[in-house]
Amino acid sequence: MSPKPFAYEWMTKYTHQEEWIEGRGVFLWLAFFFSEIGAGIYFISLFLNFRSGWVTGWLLSLILGGLVHLAYLGNPMRSWRVFLRPKSSELSRGLWAILLFAVFGFFQVLPVVIPAVPWSGENVVLKTITGILCILLITHGFLTMHVVKALAMWNSAMMIPLSLSSGICLGSQAVVFMVAMSDGNLAVPELWARWSLIAYMLVVGMFLLGNAHASAAARKSVQSLLSGELAVRFYVGILGIGIVVPLIITFIGWGAGISALSGALLFFRMACVVAGDLTMRHSVMKAAIYAPVI
Description:
Shape: globular
Strand content: under 5%
């Protein structure tokens, strides 16, 4: 029996992966994003001792990130088995990180919600543990993709720096807006937002540059982003909305002072960064190409 046309093309042509972004794969895209933005908010809030950020980040990671993860895994009567493979599965390790974050984060946010609780969420050991778990959650999505060696674009050494810069940038933008809405001091949060955005821009450039000088499959992935079928979303969604517009707003605050950044402007910047990052993640997952087998 002759092979199916798609199977034959996959063996002889450069083929975009679809399993991780089409159909139920969309849940994986959203699960990684919500887990990361929640962990990013929590991580930045730890440094600023911004307790409302702890609660918001914890709930985002668990309710949105955790539930969408479960939606991707499917039947709960079978999907629980993924927890049994932490030694061999990056997805399993990520779910364990979410579970541990749920437990330790609960003990940290409980005194914020119920002040009568007889312990403090500011305990150094507790903050260190939740900070490490935040890093694991921020890197979980791209690290899961990174171990797929058949997709050269994902196997880049820049995947982990890209996830870290993305999570910290998302978290800092959200925290700045939250602090502004609570009439807090924006000086330190804005420094996080300003420099993390610049770092994110540089890391995206390094990620593309590295892949452009890697294997043929990686180069074709970059070409599909910069000049192929994904070019519009790259230039409009990632570069324009996700980087250039937030940079303009950041430079306004840099030159005219933080007081020039109103709550509406900070919200708009945050929304642009979120939209750009969602587009970046979708594009990186969509652009990954399998090299032909023969």
